[in-house]
Design a protein that fits this description.
With 408 residues, the chain is α/β, with parallel strands linked by helices. The protein contains 15 helices and twelve strands. The protein is globular and about 70 Å long.
Length: 408
């Protein structure tokens, strides 16, 4: 086997699986992640599922101030009215009509809505604002590691195995990349396994040279072997429990179903990360946003019902966010342009404070046409890290971030 040929093909291993040791080691139950996490208070480890709404979801038409005259004045053709079927959460706020699944969870005390979430000096660039949310940085900071990646780094420093994260996708987001540890991107365990079973990759694994302390080639062979082992582990686990729940026949629906199956099969990763794209609604927003919010709502309702059946809903927290909201005033194309503060959803069977957690941002006190943020998103992260995942938020986010008490 030529060195050049190997190095060209080894991108497969490094792309498929970044730092895969944690799954390889799970073959040994006495030192596995499941054993370590079962020592968590309450007998079951808590997990976090993050759902990212990419493109900048319009929060004003998601959690709607349907009694505010300023809302209708700013959006003469885009505003939603009670007659459109708004799902009331209070006397003056309601969910988009397509979000019946989330409304049902709200009525059951399994949904919390945090309004006007953002950060100082907001950035309206998709890429920069998403970097800020994924790294947990201030707008003036440039970080190269994600907040969940640093959670892995900090929480696993003294562990025999890292507490890892899975992204149900083909590529790994910045949010899950730490300095020492990274999550794993796997969209389909069966296809992931199949890809590692090619004769060429098997030959590479068998032709691994003698180890040397400084050999980059040896490192790549080792990564390849661990990739194959991890793929086999996930594939075997995924066959344990095929969900019989009905999910939307959409990409998000399939990814949520995969998530529930992995959880039910005993893959005890502490973090799962998913995304739903298409929220950059500059033009003809009504139809596009309604379709996406319906897909989100139906998918999360199916996930909640599925995890309730497997008794995993009470130790699961779902956080739904978008990189920014939209401008208050509609544009000339029956859409909205990039804005700032937005709402965040929290879902679980064990919420301490379900319902509306704070008032919506005032439409009479705007910041250059945008909503003023009331809650720094890093305070929410700090609460999730400390109160839900049992981590040290200061090690992940740095000092000076005040937690939101009593959320989870």
């Amino acid at each position: 086997m030529q060195r050049r040929r190997f190095l060209q093909s080894s991108a497969l291993a490094s792309t498929l699986l970044l730092v895969p040791k944690f799954l390889h080691a799970l073959d040994r139950p006495e030192t596995g992640l499941a054993t370590m996490l079962r020592d968590a208070p309450g007998g079951k480890a808590r997990r976090l599922i993050v759902v990212q709404l990419s493109g900048g979801n319009d929060g004003l038409n998601t959690v709607i101030p349907y009694r505010d005259d300023l809302y209708f004045k700013a959006r003469p053709s885009l505003a939603l009215k009670e007659a459109d079927g708004i799902l009331p959460l209070s006397s003056d706020l309601g969910l988009h009509p397509k979000m019946t699944g989330l409304k049902s969870l709200y009525d059951q005390g399994q949904l919390a809505v945090l309004n006007a979430v953002g950060y100082p000096n907001p950035d309206r660039s998709h890429f920069r604002s998403m970097d800020i949310w994924q790294t947990g940085s201030g707008s003036e900071q440039l970080l190269t590691t994600g907040w969940l990646g640093r959670y892995l780094d900090s929480s696993c420093a003294g562990c025999a195995l890292p507490c890892q994260a899975l992204e149900i996708d083909d590529t790994l987001s910045l949010a899950l990349k730490g300095q020492l540890r990274k999550g794993l991107a796997v969209k389909n365990p069966a296809k992931f396994h199949q890809l590692t079973q090619s004769r060429y990759l098997s030959r590479l694994s068998q032709e691994r040279p003698a180890a040397t302390a400084t050999s980059e080639l040896d490192y790549l062979y080792k990564t390849l072997a661990e990739t194959a082992s991890s793929a086999e582990y996930l594939y075997d686990k995924a066959k344990v429990r095929a969900s019989t729940a009905t999910y939307p026949t959409t990409e998000l629906g399939r990814n949520l179903k995969t998530t529930a199956e992995l959880i039910g099969a005993g893959v005890e990763s502490r973090v799962y990360y998913l995304s739903l794209t298409g929220f950059d609604t500059h033009v003809r927003q009504h139809e596009q946003q309604g379709r996406l919010l319906g897909e989100l709502s139906d998918g999360l309702a199916a996930l909640a019902a599925d995890l309730q059946k497997s008794s995993e809903w009470e130790n699961t927290l779902v956080m739904v966010f978008s990189e920014f909201g939209r401008r208050v005033t509609q544009n000339a194309s029956n859409g909205t342009d990039h804005g700032t503060a937005n709402n965040v959803f929290l879902l679980s069977g064990a919420l301490r404070k379900p319902g509306l957690l704070n008032a919506s941002a005032s439409l009479a006190d705007l910041d250059q046409g945008d909503l003023r943020y009331q809650v720094d998103f890093r305070s929410l992260y700090a609460s999730i890290l400390t109160d839900w995942l049992g981590a040290d938020d200061k090690l992940v986010l740095g000092p000076g971030i005040e937690r939101l008490a009593g959320l989870v």
